[in-house]
Prior knowledge:
Layout (H helix, E strand, L loop, with lengths): L1 H4 L3 E6 L6 H7 L1 H6 L5 E6 L3 E2 L14 E2 L22 H15 L4 E5 L1 H14 L9 E5 L7 H10 L8 E6 L7 H11 L4 E5 L12 H10 L5
Parallel strand pairs: 1-2, 1-5, 5-6, 6-7, 7-8
Antiparallel strand pairs: 3-4
Family: Belongs to the LovG family.
Organism: Dermatophagoides pteronyssinus
Keywords: Hydrolase
Amino acid sequence: MSDMNCHKVTILCLHGYRQNTQSFKAKSGGFRKVLKNQNLEFVIIDAPHQIPMGEQNPNDEQNCLSWWFSGTNPKYFSSKHVSDYVEGYDESLKKICDTFQEMGPFDGLLGFSQGASLVALICILKHFNEFPYDFKFAILCSGFKSLTSSHVAMFDRLAGQKIRIPSLHIIGENDQVVDHDRSESLANDYFHCPFIIKHAGGHAIPSQASFRPQYMNFFDKLNDYS
């Protein structure tokens, strides 16, 4: 990745559902440590929506956040929820655009779980030149295709076209939250030449040093696209 190594590579990170900047910083600490000294800077932002008190936020914690909701009474989200209801997506997209404007540019996007699902949607917008900011790659950890009907319609617009943004997909073979088959189909069905890393763990980003060569292989291959 000689071109990218000339400057600090900045990556905008979108946490998962029921997470926030601080919790994702802790959960991704091992992953970021494995990539230490690689001139990478990870910028993590909070989703703009607090999950209301209920089953998904029983203690009414203020830092229990979501990028959008797929159900209501009270508002909730599930990756498995087939729904015509969506609330909060537009505000989240605006926050990401505002972050590009105020803190960018960013070289790449990284998302975990619901955050990865949002990154996939942004990649579709970018494919159609409907996202106004540039980024060179996407990293999707425990990603999935949103089953909300308006999001499904975005995927349907591709009509067999593949997103050509270089993408890394990190998939846990024992993920109990997002089935690994869904993460694989998101990668293979919608992205051109996806770079897939599988691990034996669950709903997490592997942080063992043994994964470092695979991570670096993805960054090195970015030169092939430039």
